[in-house]
Amino acid sequence: MIQEWIPDGGGVYGLSALLDEASNIKAAFVHKKLRMYPVQGGPSHIAEGVEHPQIMELDSPFLNL
Q1: How far apart are CA 60 and CA 47, in angstroms?
Q2: Which contiguous run of DSSP H or E holds residue 15?
Q3: Who is most buried in 3, 9, 24, 44, counting CB within 10 A?
Q4: For residue 6, what pLDDT is reported?
């Protein structure tokens, strides 16, 4: 897992992706954390799926191993 902490300034987002055996992205999903514990940064308890092309573009090079 590659992860960078960015302080909350409008939302905390996550990206989940499904890769095939050749590490090609088959599906990707961006979510915005609405509630998490601990509040400073932890697993989300409530999240919603969102469209966020910038996150997809930033993460794609890391997913294509």
Answers
A1: 21
A2: strand 12-19
A3: 44
A4: 60
This prediction has a pTM of: 0.63
The rounded Cα 60 to chain-centroid distance in angstroms is: 11
What single-letter amino acid sits at 9?
A: G
Q: Tokens standing for 19?
A: 């890769």
Predicted confidence (pLDDT) per residue in 3-61, tens digit: 666 665 667 888 888 888 988 888 888 999 888 888 777 788 888 999 988 887 877 67
Q: Residue 46 and residue 62: Cα distance in Å, rounded?
A: 26
Amino acid (one-letter) located at 19: L
The helix (H) or strand (E) run that includes residue 62 is helix 53-63
